[in-house]
Specification:
The chain has 280 residues and is mainly alpha-helical. The chain has eleven helices and two strands, in the order αααααααββαααα.
Length: 280
């Protein structure tokens, strides 16, 4: 009798886990698997992505402005936001938080094009709203410049290729790298971000908590590395929002084309090759 009850309980647990897109072994351990993004309500995913993208861009803008050249502080702050948002929303949307990560999941066959067409605008609009809120909070020029009007806080926080240092001081109008090199760096670093999320979505052995820490650390690392070379856009939602509000569009396409290329490669290599056996 007890054996029959136990068997029924296990069967019911398996069926429930399957409906939720959670692997049975993870359900027993209290983990959550984001492998079946198509089975979750699109409305819930849109709300999760909007909230997560808003606070990631909000943190990125305010740290880029207030901490300025402190790339470590900005990278750690944004990495911690990713950890929190993935812990909250990883089991709902995979906590993509970045249009090119969404693209990687589409190319990897883990997310339908229709869902991506809905999710990406939510991420971008969240970025614009974050920039708009901070433009109101910080004003036109929160810092007073002795030599007249300087750039607005939002313009200062818009990713841009840093100037080359000459004798320890920035040299005006001499970018550290050219556009081609910036595209290469942006694509390589976006590859890492997208690959980390693909690993979470494709692999059944990773819980939301473990993925949150891994992806958050990856984001912090690539922002720290990329910040000193390209300004570390890596996320079109992070770049487009402040660019639209401030009107600063210099080298803007670098922060779309580079990350798109890197994320597309991550979707192909990660979801369709490296992690393919996980679903079999």
């Amino acid at each position: 009798m007890n054996g029959t009850a136990t068997e029924y309980s296990n069967t019911e647990s398996y069926e429930t886990s399957s409906r939720l897109g959670v692997h049975p072994s993870q359900a027993e351990a209290g983990g959550h698997f984001a492998g079946d993004l198509e089975s979750i309500s699109l409305t819930r995913q849109l709300v999760a992505e909007f909230i997560g993208s808003f606070f990631l861009v909000f943190t990125g803008i305010i740290t880029a402005y207030l901490l300025f050249t402190d790339y470590l502080g900005g990278a750690l702050a944004q990495g911690m936001v990713v950890v929190v948002m993935m812990s909250l929303f990883g089991g709902i949307s995979g906590a993509q938080l970045n249009p090119v990560v969404t693209l990687a999941l589409v190319i990897g066959g883990r997310l339908s094009l229709l869902r991506a067409i809905c999710i990406i605008p939510a991420q971008v609009i969240a970025g614009v709203l974050a920039a708009l809120v901070l433009a109101g909070v910080l004003g036109k020029s929160e810092i007073v410049y002795a030599a007249g009007d300087g750039p607005s806080p939002i313009e200062m926080a818009t990713p841009k290729i840093p100037e080359r240092l000459v004798n320890g001081a920035p040299s005006p109008n001499t970018p550290r790298v050219n556009v081609a090199k910036a595209l290469l760096v942006e694509s390589l670093l976006a590859f890492v971000w997208a690959m980390a999320v693909c690993g979470f979505v494709c692999r059944r052995g990773i819980t939301t908590t473990g993925a949150a820490i891994a992806v958050g650390c990856a984001v912090s690392a690539i922002l720290l590395v990329g910040g000193v070379i390209t300004g570390a856009g890596l996320n079109p939602a992070r770049v487009f929002g402040p660019a639209l509000i401030s009107g600063y569009w210099q080298n803007h396409l670098v922060y779309w084309i580079g990350p798109i290329i890197g994320a597309a490669m991550a979707g192909l290599i990660g979801c369709r090759f490296l992690f393919r056996e996980e679903e079999e």
